[in-house]
């Protein structure tokens, strides 16, 4: 009897498992590529910097290669562009987006925005204090910028990547997603270039900042789920899920 039941259970299980994986394959791919791989890369970078503060063999050569293009005009461009990665610029932008989401009653998206941005800032501050990596001093850069904090990971890179990742997720499924992706990629790369050009970060600082920001932003989106419907931040009418807890969320906090 046991063998008979088992012969029925196994095909039933395989059929169910197949349907479940087919239904959830996108989430699994996102989890693998969007969360695991970035965090794995960040972990490897962190481990190497922890063991050897000098970092990777390619850190210094890349810095020197970028600095070899230095000139008065590029100095001005780099210093100006770097300002857009500062908290003084990023914070007002986040506040404006938050206000728009609040007015539009997109509370789930607003919760996602605030959780991701605040969490990113906490991760960056904690990692810097934990790692205590000093900034590169291959040439005199203090005359152009003042950077008193530690180096790993890059706060500018994390702030820019987190903001762009959040906007991509909030506009997912709309034509604006492509606009944000293209413009955001140029912005993120531009900010990263300024950190190398000015000599205030090693390349591994920037790469680590990008990776942990991507992993965090996508990971939080899988929990808060701001992408429940095809409606996006640019839609006129918010879906019900934006202002109402899902059944499983209500159950978790014990509300009737």
Give structural notes.
There is one protein chain. The protein has 256 residues and is an all-alpha fold. Helix 3 (72-82) packs across helix 7 (176-197). Helices cover 70% and strands 0% of the residues. It contains 9 helices and no strands. It has one domain (35-253). The model has no long low-confidence stretch (mean pLDDT 82). The two termini are 44 Å apart.
Features:
256 residues, mainly alpha, 9 helices, 70% helix
Q: How does the overall form come out from the CA principal axes?
A: globular
Helix content: 55-70%
* Span of the ends, CA to CA: 44 Å
Query: What's the number of extended β-strand segments?
Result: 0
Could you give the topology of this structure?
Elements: H1 2-51, H2 59-67, H3 72-82, H4 87-103, H5 107-131, H6 155-170, H7 176-197, H8 203-224, H9 247-253
Helix pairs in contact: 1-8, 3-7, 4-5, 5-6, 5-8, 6-7, 6-8
Q: What's a quick, concise take on this entry?
A:
With 256 residues, this protein is mostly helical. The chain is built from 9 helices and no strands. It starts with a helix and ends with a helix.
